[in-house]
Design a protein that fits this description.
single chain, 5-stranded antiparallel sheet, alpha+beta, 33% strand
Length: 129
């Protein structure tokens, strides 16, 4: 077999493996939230650009422990005029087994979320209600 053919096969295998890993990781995190998810109150504390994309940072507490996460969104204005509801209370859906696995419910602003989690396509969940 010539070298270029081996390189092409290796490249294709690598791409397939990467998509497989990403898909598995996405399904596992979504399944964890569906099976172990609970809702709590959180707060959007910041918004920032990274790599030309806008993210909101939110915090929530599980017991006394504070967790911080982020979600990519399109920039939007809340009814009160605040940018992407920074400073507002929101619902947070997190896994009891792994609170780092969380999602934010922006209510009527959920349409501004980018990169939906897999479960949002198939099931009604607390992160979308």
């Amino acid at each position: 077999m010539e070298s270029s053919k081996i390189e092409r096969i290796s490249a294709v295998f690598f791409v397939i493996a990467m998509f497989g890993f990403i898909g598995y990781h996405s399904v596992t995190k979504s399944k964890d939230l569906l099976e172990n998810g609970v809702v709590t109150e959180g707060e959007i504390v910041d918004g920032y650009y990274s790599g030309g994309k806008f993210y909101i940072k939110y915090i929530f507490f599980v017991g006394e422990k504070r967790f911080e996460s982020e979600r990519r969104v399109a920039v939007f204005k809340c009814d009160d005029g605040s940018t992407s509801c920074i400073g507002k209370k929101v619902k947070v859906f997190y896994s009891e087994k792994n609170p780092k696995n969380s999602d934010i419910n922006l209510g009527k602003y959920n349409k501004y979320k980018r990169g939906k989690r897999l479960y949002e396509f198939f099931e009604d969940s607390p992160s979308t209600r």
